[in-house]
Structure formats: structure tokens, C-alpha cells
Specification:
The complex is a heterodimer. Chain A is built from 23 helices and twelve strands. By secondary structure, chain A is an alpha/beta fold. Chain A has a domain at 28-156 and 340-379: 3-Layer(aba) Sandwich (D-Maltodextrin-Binding Protein, domain 2). In chain A, β4 (147-148) and β5 (151-152) form a beta hairpin. Chain A starts with a helix and ends in an 8-residue tail after the last helix. The longest helix of chain B has 31 residues, at 78-108. Chain B is globular, with a radius of gyration of 26 Å. In chain B, α8 (169-197) packs across α10 and α10 (214-242) packs antiparallel against α13. Chain B has a two-stranded antiparallel sheet with strand order 1-2. Chain B folds into two domains: 6-51, no CATH class; 77-301, Orthogonal Bundle (MetI-like fold). In chain B, a hairpin with a 4-residue loop joins β1 (55-56) and β2. Chain B is built from 13 helices and two strands. Chain A binds chain B through residues 82, 86, 89-90, 93, 111, 114-115, 222, 270-272, 274-276, 280, 420-421, 423-424, 427, 431-432, 434-435, 437-440, and chain B through 58-59, 61, 143-145, 160, 162, 164, 166-169, 255-259, 269, 272-275.
Chain lengths: 481, 306
């Protein structure tokens, strides 16, 4: 009897324990963060955020909501993109503890982590039960953007990736299709290789020029083209360095071919395209003057007219191509995860737990889904659940195609070179692009650039950089598989 | 009461004992301001000198003594010397053009004419605009897609012209010089107008009566009279041109490549984009040295030290 009684009591106990545990697991990462953060009611955390549209998220949405839920205040320090790395490093060096949480570009991670400016987050992820939701971030971002030296330093928070946008009405127009076939001898289709892109763009320009429409246009200013070079160079089979010697190999035949092709493509793009930045290219596409372009995800939303009535987006040209835009992976099939943002914690923060809870909450499934749907704040889908969310799929008629393309991109994307002092290498590439547009010889440009890369590597230390490069190159998104 | 009477001043100045204060007292009075000036002027200079002998970068805070490494690097840095050459090219072209245009305009406005004051105010307007705004405005004016300049050239040419002013090698320097000369010729104009207004008219009139021509009067009477003021204007603009940054940054960012990178832009890039703090300090001392030699030479050559 005693035994039965004891067994019965044990069973009841186990049931209660199981109920409690399952209740705890049923709680989302966002709920858990809110509950834990309530201990810090009345405190303020300071977060560095990119100035402009990006920061409307914490200023107008997530910051006030977090305060309402936890009683914690969020102070947003808006910093221009070009100054974010400097500010973060300066505050770290000065040891001011002025920043608690940070928006960090993944390509800065090796520098910031090795300098000690970022707090490793593994312990916090475990402590606050974020492992499961962290795993549900799209693998390309989770596996490539979060870690340095095997530790988590950032929560990938922005699915920045280059997508090709094309005019469906042009690609499906029977007259244009006939004219294209007559001109090229093959059917008109969205290009899958850069060779096809050159042929298609050139032929479409010839056919559509009388209507003031060009086959394609890109943002060609060096900071943007630098990313496109990284993408195309690797799609064509190029490697940045010889992994053994760390000698730069950007001046290979592949590099020369990419630069040569890029300059040749300008001939069928609108005059002066070399001067175009993000806005000029957007304006031309929205005005229906280009049949194809490549850019970050916001182009797709704005071209569909999503959110462009918002006051914050009154600078965005009104779309004349709504409902006519198709989405595809750029030629080569491995789009660049260009730039992007992680959420990190400053190692000098005096309020690390509270800051971590805020970024966990921001990054969680529930809250991130709301944030990527904000029309104005430029955060792009980065979780598997974002790509299949019913609410997002219903935002505009072609949203399903848009999200499918973003998901495809998340499976095939390649991420920016991220080594020690990445920006120095990138600066050399930016200058190389400038020289290319100025008419210099591609081979000479890349030989000089490779020489500069070697100089940078030598100064940093070949062995030191070799180890960091090996870590980067071992990641799934470093080179197309 | 708007001024103190001598009686009040004497009461204030006289110490209670009736004796005059210690002569050192005046030094004590100025000591705080001197200390402050040293703190904000001399300390950074000394600190920069110290940093220039270290190996500090943004990611590596190595404060150990590195000897003359950074200074030796200056001699191997082709980009640095190219940037100095670019600076000199801009200075050598812009300075004489601004001087000649400024002088010509000043001469034109010397005579009384209807609306003179209004015209002078309008001409001087560019100098009150921030150089970075001027650069950004000219960048828009030169823009292929939105700028009016290429449009106007196109009207004359009878067809659309493609001139990429901030990209094409043979157009970037003209673009920079147009912007620079547009903004700073009025400065020369204003200073030289003031100088010309003070030239003794009786001398020029006497020379005219004696049959001297325009150029003879200019070189023998006007130029010597305005030279001290003109020399100062040349010196100020010369130094300004040597450290030119904003206009070029807004127009070309030093590009294409590094084709229009001046010494100030290169220093900025090294210091605030590449975070080579120690090397940047060495560059800064190179500039200080170069500028000191040039300015001292110029002051002596122009006779300003007399």
C-alpha cells in the first residue's frame, strides 16, 4: 500500500513537474525576455542604430513597446553607417560604457570580436532559453553572421541580400519576345548567368530604347559596386586569397573578366549610370525606365507600393511598375548578403543582461516578424517563419513570389569578405571600381589592387590574417558550393 | 553711466595698502588663459608627436616606442606624395586664377555705378556658403541625369551629351577648379576692392596727366600700393587651398580611384577610415613641417616680415 501510495505521489509530482516544464517551454523567447527584463524596470539601455529609416524601428515601434512591456527605457543613438564602426571602437577604447547594445555589420565581427569590443553571447543564449529560436534563423545568416572564433557575438537581424527585379510585363510581352527572338535567335527569359544578362540587357535596350526604356541599370557608385564585384567574382569561381600564402588572387583572369564585363554592360545601361547610387537606380526602376535591376529587398516592397504612402518614405519615387515586377536570384544564382546587421552587446556595457534581453526580444520570432513588416524601417526577412508568414504573404499580390525569392536567396547566398580590417580591403576595391569607370585597364587596376591587398595583409601579419581567413572561408556562405 | 571716471579707476586700481601691486601680478592675471591655450593647443601637438612614434591603430592599441617607423613609411608611401602633388596642382592653378579674376572684378567695381552695392553683395554670396554645401550643389549641377550643366551643353551641341564630371579623368579637375574658383574668387575680390579703394588717386591722376598708360600705372603705382594687402590675401588663400577638403570630398570623394585625393583627404582617410592613428600623426607633422617652410618662405619673399 505504501509502495502504491509512494508511486502515486511520485506520479503526481512528475505530472506537476512536466506541466511546469511544458508551460515554461510554451513560453516564447519574447515572453521570457519581457518577464526577465521586468526586474530591470526603470533602467535605461542605450543602443547604437543606423541613422535614418533604420532607426525608426526602435524610435517608433520596438523602443516604446519594450518600455510599455518592461518599464525599461531605450535610448537610441543614431549613427551614420560610415561612422558606426569608428564610434563603437572609440567608445570601447575609451571604456566609457556609453553603449549597451549595438547594431554591427557582420563583416566587422572579426575586428570587433578580436579587439574585445563585443560580449560573447553564448552564455546569455543558454541562460535566457533562446537556443531554439536562434536555430530558426535562416541558416545562411545564422551560420555565417553570428559567430567569430567559434563564439556567438551577434544575433543576425536583417536579411540584407541582393535580388534581381525584372519587369514581368516586358518579359511576357509577345511583341518584345518576338523582336528579341529575331534579334538574338533565342527566347526571352530572365537571365541566369552573367553572359545571358549581357545579351538580354543589350538586346532589350536596342528594342526598347525608342520608348526610353533600357535593358538594365544598376547602382554603379563604388561602394555598391564593390559588393557586386564580390558577388560576381565568386559566382564566376574567383577566390580572394591563396589560402596557403595569403597572396591576393583578385587579379586572376576571373577578376579581370568580371571588371571587363561590368564596364561593357554600362554601354547598354542609361548614360551616366556610373554616377548612380541607391536612389538614382530606384528612381529609374520605379519610373519604368529599366527592365532589370539588382538591389536590396526594399526595392521589391516599394516597387509594389507597400508602405510608400508613409510620410517617412515621401522621398521614394512613386512606383509606376506596381504589379509588373518579378523577382529572381541574380545571375550566377548566389546572391551577395551585402552589408546586413547583427544585434550585439558592448563588452563595456554596465547593463549587459538587460541589454541582452532587449536584443533577444527584438530578434525573437514574434517581434522580428512584426519588425520586418514595418514598411519604413528597412529590416528584411531573415527567419524561416518570415518567409511563410500568412500576414506577410498577403501584403501585396506578388508578396509570395517576393518571399520565395528571398527564401531561395537565403539558401544560396554568399556573404561579404570578413577578415581583420576588412574595410581596408574593401576600400581598395572601391577605388578599383572608381578607376574602372574612369577608363583604366582592368588588369592593371586589379594588379595594383592585389598589391595593395598584399601590403595590408603583410602589415596585419600573414599568419594572423591566414587564421581569420581560414575561419571565414570555412563557413557555408563564403564561396558558392 | 557708460564709462568709469578717472577717480573711480584710480580707487579700483590702487591696492588697500596704497602701494602699487607686484609686477608679477599681471602674469597671474593672464596665467589662466595662457594655461588654457596651452592645454588646448600645445597638449594635442605634443600628444600627437608622442603618438607618431608609436604603432596605434583603431584595432591595435600598441603604445610601445616604434622609433621612426612611421616617418620612414612616409617616404615609401606613393599615395601620400601623389596626394601632395594633387594639392599643389589645384593650388598652382586656382590661386592665380582667383587672384586675377578677383583683381579684375575689383577694378571693375572701383568706379561708382548704379546698383553697385547690390552687385557686390551678390558676388560675395558664394563665400558665405559652407564649402561642403557648395561641393554638393556643384555635384548636382554636374550630374548627368539631373544636372542642368550637361543639359545646357547639350542644347548648344544639338544632341544629348554624356559628360561625367566627377568620374572622367579629364573632367574631374576642371569640375573641382570651377567650384573652387566660383566660391573663393569673391574673397579675393572683396579684399582687393578694399585695397584698391585706398590707393591715392592723386598719384594715378598725376601719372595719367604725365601720359603713363594703364599697365604702367598699375605696375608702378597701384600694385606697390596694394601689395601688402594682396600678399596677405594670397597667403590666406594659398594656405586654404593647401588644406582643401570639403569641396573635393563632396564632389569626387578623392576619386576616381585616388585621382583627386588631396593631402587633407588622404590624412582623413588614414586617420578616420583606416584608423592608422600613429601614421596619421606622422603625416600631420609632415604637413606642419611643409606648411611652416612654405609659409616662412612666402612671408620673406613677399616682404611681409618687414
Amino acid at each position: 500500500m505504501n509502495l502504491i501510495k509512494r508511486l502515486g505521489l511520485t506520479a503526481v509530482g512528475a505530472l506537476i513537474a512536466a506541466t511546469t516544464v511544458s508551460a515554461a517551454w510554451a513560453e516564447s523567447a519574447a515572453d521570457r525576455a519581457v518577464k526577465e527584463a521586468q526586474k530591470y524596470k526603470g533602467q535605461t539601455i542605450t543602443i547604437v542604430w543606423e541613422a535614418g529609416l533604420q532607426s525608426l524601428d526602435p524610435l517608433n515601434f520596438s523602443g516604446p513597446l519594450w518600455e510599455k512591456l518592461t518599464g525599461m527605457k531605450v535610448k537610441v543613438v543614431e549613427v551614420q553607417t560610415a561612422e558606426m564602426f569608428t564610434k563603437i571602437m572609440q567608445e570601447y577604447r575609451a571604456g566609457t560604457g556609453a553603449y549597451d547594445a549595438l547594431n554591427v555589420m557582420p563583416s566587422w565581427m572579426p575586428d570587433l570580436a578580436n579587439a574585445g569590443a563585443l560580449e560573447p553571447l553564448d552564455a546569455y543564449v543558454d541562460k535566457y532559453g533562446y537556443k531554439d529560436e536562434f536555430q530558426k534563423i535562416a541558416p545562411i545568416y545564422r551560420d555565417n553572421w553570428a559567430k567569430a572564433n567559434g563564439k556567438i557575438y551577434g544575433l543576425p537581424d536583417d536579411g540584407d541580400v541582393f535580388i534581381m527585379y525584372f519587369r514581368k510585363d516586358i518579359f511576357e510581352d509577345p511583341k518584345i519576345k518576338d523582336a528579341f527572338k529575331a534579334k538574338t535567335g533565342h527566347d526571352l527569359s530572365v537571365p541566369k548567368t552573367w553572359k545571358e544578362f549581357g545579351e538580354t540587357g543589350s538586346a532589350l535596350t536596342e528594342i526598347l530604347k525608342p520608348q526610353n526604356v533600357y535593358g538594365a541599370a544598376f547602382f554603379r557608385q563604388p561602394p555598391y559596386t564593390m559588393f557586386m564585384f564580390q558577388e560576381r567574382f565568386r559566382n564566376e569561381g574567383g577566390k580572394f586569397f591563396d589560402a596557403e600564402t595569403m597572396k591576393a588572387t583578385i587579379n586572376s583572369d576571373i577578376g579581370v573578366k568580371v571588371l571587363t564585363d561590368m564596364r561593357n554592360e554600362n554601354k547598354f545601361m542609361p548614360p551616366g549610370v556610373e554616377q548612380w547610387g541607391f536612389v538614382e537606380n530606384l528612381a529609374a526602376f520605379m519610373a519604368g525606365q529599366t527592365a532589370m535591376t539588382i538591389s536590396w529587398p526594399p526595392y521589391g516592397r516599394w516597387a509594389a507600393g507597400y508602405g510608400t504612402d508613409d510620410k517617412a518614405l515621401n522621398w521614394v519615387p512613386k512606383s509606376t511598375v506596381g504589379g509588373k515586377v518579378g523577382y529572381a536570384l541574380p545571375p550566377g544564382g548566389h546572391p551577395e548578403l551585402a552589408a546586413g546587421f547583427d544585434l550585439s552587446i558592448a563588452s563595456t556595457s554596465k547593463n549587459k543582461d538587460a541589454a541582452y534581453l532587449f536584443i533577444q526580444w527584438l530578434n525573437s520570432e514574434d517581434i522580428s516578424l512584426q519588425r520586418v513588416k514595418l514598411p519604413t524601417t528597412l529590416r528584411d526577412p531573415f527567419r524561416d517563419s518570415h518567409y511563410t508568414d500568412a500576414g506577410y504573404l498577403a501584403l501585396w499580390p506578388d508578396a509570395k513570389d517576393y518571399l520565395k525569392t528571398l527564401k531561395d536567396a537565403s539558401l544560396a547566398g554568399i556573404f561579404d569578405l570578413s577578415v581583420l580590417q576588412t574595410d581596408k580591403y574593401e576600400e581598395v576595391l572601391r577605388q578599383a571600381i572608381g578607376k574602372l569607370w574612369a577608363g583604366e585597364d582592368p588588369k592593371a587596376i586589379l594588379d595594383a589592387a592585389a598589391g595593395e591587398w598584399d601590403g595590408i595583409t603583410k602589415k596585419i601579419g600573414v599568419d594572423k590574417q591566414k587564421a581569420v581567413y581560414a575561419d571565414w572561408a570555412s563557413k557555408s556562405g563564403a564561396y558558392p558550393k | 553711466m557708460t564709462s568709469a571716471s578717472p577717480f573711480v579707476l584710480s580707487v579700483i586700481a590702487r591696492p588697500p595698502s596704497g602701494r602699487m601691486p607686484d609686477h608679477n601680478f599681471r602674469y597671474w592675471i593672464i596665467a589662466p588663459s595662457v594655461f588654457l591655450l596651452l592645454l588646448i593647443g600645445l597638449f594635442p601637438l605634443i600628444y600627437s608627436l608622442v603618438v607618431s612614434f608609436q604603432q596605434i591603430t583603431m584595432t591595435d592599441y600598441d603604445t610601445s616606442f616604434a622609433g621612426l617607423t612611421n616617418y620612414a613609411q612616409l617616404f615609401d608611401d606613393a599615395r601620400l606624395w601623389q596626394s601632395i602633388a594633387h594639392t599643389l596642382i589645384i593650388t598652382i592653378i586656382a590661386l592665380p586664377v582667383e587672384l586675377v579674376f578677383g583683381l579684375a572684378m575689383a577694378h571693375l567695381f572701383l568706379e561708382r555705378m548704379p546698383g553697385r552695392q547690390i552687385f557686390i553683395s551678390l558676388i560675395v554670396l558664394p563665400t558665405v556658403i559652407s564649402p561642403v554645401v557648395a561641393g554638393a550643389t556643384w555635384r548636382l549641377l554636374f550630374d548627368q541625369r539631373y544636372g542642368p550643366i550637361n543639359q545646357v551643353i547639350g542644347w548648344f551641341a544639338g544632341h544629348e551629351v554624356v559628360m561625367l564630371w566627377n568620374i572622367t579623368p579629364h573632367l574631374v579637375y576642371p569640375a573641382i577648379l570651377i567650384c573652387e574658383i566660383w566660391q573663393w574668387t569673391p574673397f579675393m575680390f572683396l579684399i582687393l576692392l578694399a585695397a584698391l579703394s585706398n590707393v591715392d588717386k592723386s598719384l594715378t591722376e598725376a601719372a595719367e596727366l604725365d601720359g603713363a598708360g594703364f599697365w604702367r600705372i598699375f605696375f608702378k603705382i597701384v600694385l606697390p600700393a596694394i601689395w601688402p594687402v594682396m600678399a596677405i590675401a594670397i597667403l590666406i588663400r594659398g594656405v586654404d587651398l593647401f588644406r582643401i577638403f570639403d569641396v573635393i570630398w563632396a564632389l569626387t570623394s578623392g576619386g576616381p580611384g585616388t585621382m583627386t585625393e588631396t593631402i587633407s583627404i588622404y590624412t582623413y582617410v588614414q586617420g578616420f577610415q583606416q584608423f592608422e592613428s600613429s601614421y596619421t600623426a606622422a603625416i600631420a607633422f609632415l604637413i606642419v613641417g611643409l606648411m611652416s617652410v612654405i609659409v616662412i618662405w612666402a612671408i620673406r619673399r613677399m616682404g611681409l616680415a618687414k
